[in-house]
Protein: Putative pterin-4-alpha-carbinolamine dehydratase
Organism: Pelagerythrobacter aerophilus
Amino acid sequence: MAVAKLTEEERTIALGDLQGWSLASDRDAIERTFTFADFVEAFGFMTRVALLAEKADHHPEWSNVYNRVEIALTTHDADGLSQRDIDMAKSIDAL
Amino acid sequence: MAVAKLTEEERTIALGDLQGWSLASDRDAIERTFTFADFVEAFGFMTRVALLAEKADHHPEWSNVYNRVEIALTTHDADGLSQRDIDMAKSIDAL
């Protein structure tokens, strides 16, 4: 099933709801950087996100350097930002 | 304890031993991309690498997009490539 890209209005509302996430400068995605005490804390967080992502069948593009985790969310099927990204961002923030 | 950066000779020998790893183009690091069947396989691999890395107290810089994991190894204390990176690359390859 195709996933709808957010309209400008939906996007404005959705981004207003999210704390700490910003639009990527180079593509239609939202990004957030999380910083932890150390690698164990960072990877523990990643493991929880991985389980969420697999359950939702919506996977982040992410990177980790020691205590820092950068997450980008976008929807390939929508060729941009969709409600699935907003929902995943909220789920991640709720961890 | 400071970690010694590999000499040119040591680096040539070490890289000759490693399969699939290449020097980064933009800094003194080695990189390899691993591709798996799906996200679960990719994250399972990352979890094993995370445990290795924590045990060795030598952490990768890495990213993941669905079934693909890109790993870069470098030693900040050596300001470049050290034997610790070579050892970690071998440990990862042995998984």
